[in-house]
Amino acid sequence: MIKELEDKLKQKDIRPTAMRLLVLEALAGQETAISLSDLEKAFEKSDRVTLFRTLKTFQENGLVHSIDDGTGAPKYALCEEGCECNIERDLHVHFHCRVCSETFCLPKYKIPEIELPSMFKGEEANLVVKGICGKCAG
């Protein structure tokens, strides 16, 4: 498992360190997006700044993407295989459950391409559907 995690980091030109491997393992074990605060709780003895820098490094290198789900704290989730976080082709819908407060990536549901005026250059887009997830509805 550690070898696979190291390889995943190296593929994204991220130097594998103990903390980066631990954070990647934690993210890989998540079914939903996770906030910095949630990650901090999972790593009690870890420094918040180190965790934040790790997430930023992962984001800058296309390993994770951040989600603004309207809760005031960005959430982070691993990118799909082959994702380059490219605004033209890699953006997908997210779902935020109002009951359990979990945020889910829905990679099969792509955000449609939005044609901007000629002098505009899109850098980021976010589509969050809010409601009740299947776990909470049932």
Automatic annotation (TrEMBL):
The record's free-text note on cofactor binding: Binds 1 zinc ion per subunit.
Is RNA-binding among this UniProt entry's keywords?
Answer: no
| Amino-acid biosynthesis in keyword set | no
GO-annotated biological processes = negative regulation of DNA-templated transcription; regulation of secondary metabolite biosynthetic process
Task: Cite the InterPro entries for this sequence.
Answer: FUR, WH-like_DNA-bd_sf, WH_DNA-bd_sf
**Residues the entry annotates as binding Zn(2+):** C97, C100, C133, C136
**What cofactor does its activity depend on?**
Zn(2+)
Q: Which UniProt keywords apply?
A: Metal-binding, Zinc
One GO term in the molecular function aspect is: zinc ion binding
Quote the protein name from its UniProt record: Fur family ferric uptake transcriptional regulator
What is the native source organism of this protein?
Algoriphagus aquaeductus
